[in-house]
Amino acid sequence: MPILKSFVELCNGIGFQVELLLGSLARLSDLRRRGWAVADILYQGAVQGLHVVLLVGLFIGMIVALQTGIELQRIGQQDQIGTIVAISMAREMGPFITCTILAATMGSSMAAELGTMAVSDELAALEVLSIDRIKLLVLPRLVAIAIAAPLLTILCDAIGILGGGFVAQSQLHVSTQLYFDSAIEALRDPAHIFPLPKDLYSGLFKSSIFGVLIAIIGCSAGLRASGGALGVGNATRAAVRDSIIAIIIANYFITWMLYQS
């Protein structure tokens, strides 16, 4: 039955991803030997994709400010725009937008690279040589994306809040001083776990988890690729699709865990 076959394939895929994650965590002590690989992947993910994150973050902040400001202006509460933009960017929009971009860029890149190695029998050659594929290929990517995601999220939050301030001042006639005062005040919610405002560390925590999901799903799709160029294309598409779905689902449960009280 097609449905049963699809369900079995889904379970096998999730099981393989969990195996990769646990295997990577078990090999964290070997990370020192993979320092250059981590730095190279971090450069590709954080530096080369920085302009995309900043551009998208800027316009997301502007859109949030404009849409909410128009409605708040009707009831004379446009001075709250800074609060709404700051909380929206820090809690949700910053981590989500940043990691969606990483899924589309780094997730697809990892799947294509490892998929090409799989279909050209390079992975089989590593196995014949008794080289640990997880230590060599998965661990550096996992650590690099888990670091890049929160770093880019901070920049996305900052540029989004700045973009919102520009719209608030130019389109909604809210003073820059009032906007940034309310934005800073909104992010001063005391934290009980980390020495950071809750809205800020919750967003950074989300982005770190999302980064791990992107790396594991992208590597898993690439390592399981088969069938030549078509298989690499399918793996790349599956990596982006599954990463975005996982980000959305994880976002709900993390938000519920952090804000249910």
Describe this structure as you would to a colleague.
The protein has helices at 2-26, 35-47, 50-74, 81-119, 122-128, 133-170, 176-186, 198-223, 228-259. The radius of gyration is 21 Å and the shape is elongated. The protein is mainly α. The model has no long low-confidence stretch (mean pLDDT 88).
Strand content: under 5%
Computed CA radius of gyration, to the nearest angstrom: 21 Å
**Percent of residues in helices:** over 70%
Overall pLDDT confidence = 88
Task: Report the major sheet.
Answer: none
The counted number of beta strands is 0
Listing every helix as H and every strand as E from the N terminus to the C terminus, the arrangement reads HHHHHHHHH
Structural class by secondary-structure content:
mainly alpha
Unreliable sequence segments = none
> Whole-Å distance between the termini?
44 Å
Count of DSSP-assigned helices: 9
Shape: elongated
Give short descriptive properties of this protein.
single chain, 261 residues, mainly alpha, 9 helices, 0% strand
Brief digest:
The chain is mostly helical.
Q: What does the secondary structure layout of this molecule look like, with pairings?
A:
Layout lengths: L1 H25 L8 H13 L2 H25 L6 H39 L2 H7 L4 H38 L5 H11 L11 H26 L4 H32 L2
Helix pairs in contact: 1-6, 1-8, 2-6, 3-4, 3-6, 4-6, 4-7, 4-8, 4-9, 6-7, 6-8, 8-9
